[in-house]
């Protein structure tokens, strides 16, 4: 990114970006109130984030999930309780360290995680389809820089 950390952000740009993000949320049905009938229906935001992470390769523990989400262990445990109650995740003892609980998706959990991912990819495809190839590359580059926390 080209902005230095000391450079002030224009108030009009802040307003415009906030309005644009809100419009995108509504248009692509990303707001919680518009999720009825979608793969996100009846899921707490922590549940969605947790499902996405557990769907990634690796042996996931409560502590590892908490670190990935930058959340307290108790928040992750509460989300796991909800997801386990719905039959979307299962906890089991680690094979070599019985003190550690490993979290895995069930078949239903894996199917839901795939539906969530497919929905996200479809939304991104629809958003990018409105732009020229050059603008697509630029917005992807800029969003990735923001996500990485880059300042220069």
Description:
This protein is mostly helical. It has 6 helices and 3 strands. The protein has 2 domains: 30 residues, no CATH class; 106 residues, Orthogonal Bundle (Arc Repressor Mutant, subunit A). The chain has a 3-stranded antiparallel β-sheet. A hairpin with a 7-residue loop joins β2 and β3. The longest helix is centred in the C-terminal third of the chain and has 22 residues. The model has no long low-confidence stretch (mean pLDDT 81).
Please give the alpha-carbon distance between the first and last residues.
5 Å
Number of helices: 6
Question: Which second-level CATH architecture of the largest domain applies?
Answer: Orthogonal Bundle
Q: What's the name of the CATH homologous superfamily of the largest domain?
A: Winged helix-like DNA-binding domain superfamily/Winged helix DNA-binding domain
Report the biggest beta sheet as strand number plus sense, adding barrel if it closes: 3 strands, antiparallel
The helix content is 55-70%
Q: What structural category do the secondary elements indicate?
A: mainly alpha
Key features of this structure:
2 domains, 6 helices, 152 residues, mainly alpha, 8% strand, elongated, Arc Repressor Mutant, subunit A
Summarize the structure.
The chain is mainly α.
Secondary-structure map with pairings?
Layout: H1 11-27, H2 45-54, E1 60-61, H3 62-69, H4 73-85, E2 89-93, E3 101-105, H5 107-128, H6 133-148
Antiparallel strand pairs: 1-3, 2-3
Helix pairs in contact: 2-4, 3-4
